[in-house]
Structures are given as structure tokens and as C-alpha cells.
Design a protein that fits this description.
By secondary structure, the chain is an alpha/beta fold. It contains 11 helices and 15 strands. Helix content is about 30%, strand content about 20%. Strand 2 and strand 3 form a beta hairpin.
Length: about 350
């Protein structure tokens, strides 16, 4: 029996969890913890929307601790930690919040979670360092671009893989920006193509990634200049393959406190005029319709007309469409991200 502690965006996390094909999924008393009987564990390790995961322990802890070499114990409850330390002669314990990762416990100890009358052992954690490297160690980045966070990008990538049913697909990002989608795809062993109107940041970041220990230099990782609203000038780059498309298009212009409702409507028309021809192009550019997972801006506190326009065009060109109701947003932001899947 497995357990998983979900990220704050529960709907996104559960959608991504489908990639690992869990069976008999059920929520625990808190909605942020789920239990399931079986899964593809190798895929579970690759998920981004799970803070930590593990397995329930069979039998009593008196059978468990003698066979456990790591003696630093991490538990959420201080009193339970004191009792376990005394009872089983452990070196020491640390109090670890359910929704946080303690690096010392992760690297040198063992973390247990109490689930009713049973204990669970944590076996895996979210890949915080990978996301930090991708988000903050790129030489080419700017706060003036709507950079999709690496963690969210990773989740969308896994949702796309689950929908497409392909283990190692060709991934394409037509709004490549600083290269985040490419870095994540390459890190997890996938071929990647990316394009954009301007390649300034991606071209600055790509050479560094190709020599990084986190990258795979033997895999295709190519970028090219292209207007996403136009037909491909060089379709041979795809070698007749249909990619999965993981991307975030235009989130701008910036919404300020002084921005009026009419201005927001105009901004939505601008974004629609990028997304509409792009979706039409993607419906006809490949041997079959690609799996697409992407975000669109959701204007917080304003009337949103954009999603309706997106739905209209995807239905016209024959895509099957789905939208997650949960928004990805941060404190004090004026724009959230809505996830679309086709």
C-alpha cells in the first residue's frame, strides 16, 4: 500500500499522478494525503506534484527498526518522536513537517508518517534542487518574461506523457522562452525541439545546460526561430514524428492596480490572437493531432473571456479538450494560470 502527500495544487497533483497508474486511489483524512494499492513505482519517482511518497509498513515497528541502518528519525509529532527514540534506542529524532523536506533526514535518516493505526516509511521526495537549478541558475532570464516555473512545467510534462501514452516522446515547446520545458524534458531522457519569435534567452542558456551534469548531451535538444501563428518553414526537423506539446504562451501585458476592466478585455483579445492561429496550425502540422498541455492566463478579479474563445477553436479543429478548474497562482499576483489539455 502506497501513500503520497500532495502539493498545494491538489487537482494538478492528482492529474499528474495518473501517469504512475495508481489503483484503488483514496483520500486520507486530510485531502492532501492519498493512499493507493499499486502503481508503476519508477514513474512515481518522477512526479513533481508529490511532496513525498512511500509505503505502509507491514507489522510492528519492533520488526522494522532492527533492520534499519539509518538511525536519525524524522516524524511530524514531537512526543511521538521522543517515545520512539527511547523505545528503539535511536540516535536522535527531528521534527519534520508533513509538507516539508528536511535535507538531513532525507540524506542520512528515515522519515515515518503516522496514518491511523499504521506507519508509513517515506521513500521519495520532490526534486527541489532540480527546480532551483532550472529556475534560478540560468544565465539568461528576465523578470519581464512570464517564465513558467520548473515544477509546474514538470507536472505538465507528466500529464502530457500520461495522455499520450508514450514513455519517451519527442517534446515540442513553440513558446520556448528561456528553455525550461526543454531542460526538464532533456533531464528525463526525452528528445526536445523548441521555437520562439526571439531566442535570446534560450540561446544563452542552452550551451550551459548541454554541459551540465543534469543534462543528456546525446539527446536531441534543438531550438529554432519560428512564429507560432505561422506554418512551419522547416517541418523536416520533426522527421515525420508527432510530438507532445508542452508550453506556456503569452501571459502579458502586466496587470497593475490601475488596469481597467476594458484594458483586460483588450489584453485577452491580444492573447487570443496568438493562441487561436497557433492551435489551428498545430491541428494540421503533424501526421496526427498532437497531445497538447498548456497554460492560459486567468485574470484574477476580472471577467475572463479567453477560455471560451480557446474552447471554440479547439472544437472547430477537432481536438478533444479538457481544462483543470484549479488555478496555479501566487500571493498578490493579478494573473493565474489555467491548465488546458487537448
Amino acid at each position: 500500500m502506497y501513500f503520497a502527500i500532495l502539493w498545494k495544487n491538489k487537482e494538478l497533483s492528482l492529474k499528474e499522478l495518473e501517469y504512475a497508474q495508481p489503483t484503488k486511489l483514496q483520500s486520507w483524512t486530510t485531502q492532501q494525503i492519498v493512499l493507493f494499492e499499486n502503481c508503476e513505482e519508477a514513474k512515481l519517482v518522477q512526479l513533481a506534484g508529490i511532496i513525498k511518497w512511500g509505503k505502509l509498513i507491514d507489522g510492528d515497528l519492533s520488526d522494522f527498526f532492527p533492520s534499519c541502518e539509518k538511525r536519525i528519525l524524522g516524524v511530524a509529532d514531537k512526543n511521538i518522536g521522543i517515545n520512539l527514540k527511547k523505545r528503539y534506542g535511536l540516535k536522535r529524532f527531528k521534527q519534520v513537517d508533513l509538507f516539508h523536506t528536511d535535507l538531513e533526514v532525507k540524506q542520512k535518516g528515515i522519515e515515518l508518517i503516522k496514518l491511523g493505526s499504521q506507519w508509513g516509511q517515506v521513500l521519495g521526495y520532490q526534486q527541489i534542487k532540480l527546480y532551483e537549478v532550472v529556475d534560478f541558475e540560468k544565465p539568461g532570464r528576465s523578470m519581464q518574461m512570464g517564465m513558467m516555473p520548473a515544477k509546474l512545467t514538470h507536472i505538465l510534462l507528466n500529464i502530457g506523457r500520461a495522455l499520450a501514452g508514450e514513455e519517451l516522446p519527442l517534446v515540442y515547446d513553440p513558446f520556448v522562452g528561456s528553455g525550461t520545458t526543454g531542460f526538464l524534458a532533456n533531464h528525463f531522457g526525452m528528445e526536445f525541439l523548441g521555437s520562439d519569435l526571439k531566442l535570446t534567452f534560450a540561446e544563452r542558456n542552452l550551451p550551459r545546460w548541454k554541459v551540465s551534469k543534469r543534462g543528456h548531451s546525446d539527446l536531441t535538444f534543438e531550438i529554432f526561430q519560428h512564429d507560432a501563428t505561422k506554418s512551419f518553414e522547416n517541418p523536416e526537423l520533426f522527421a515525420g514524428k508527432t510530438p507532445i506539446i508542452i508550453t506556456e504562451g503569452w501571459l502579458w501585458p502586466v496587470i497593475k492596480a490601475s488596469t481597467t476592466a476594458e484594458e483586460v478585455k483588450e489584453y485577452q483579445r491580444w492573447v487570443k490572437n496568438v493562441y487561436r492561429p497557433w492551435i489551428e496550425q498545430m491541428a494540421n502540422a503533424f501526421p496526427k493531432k498532437p497531445t497538447m498541455v498548456f497554460t492560459i492566463p486567468r485574470y484574477l478579479g476580472y471577467e475572463n473571456l479567453l477560455e471560451k474563445a480557446i474552447i471554440e477553436v479547439v472544437e472547430q479543429v477537432g481536438f478533444r479538450f479538457g481544462s483543470l478548474q484549479e488555478l496555479y497562482k501566487r500571493e498578490q499576483h493579478k494573473i493565474g494560470r489555467a491548465v488546458q489539455q487537448e
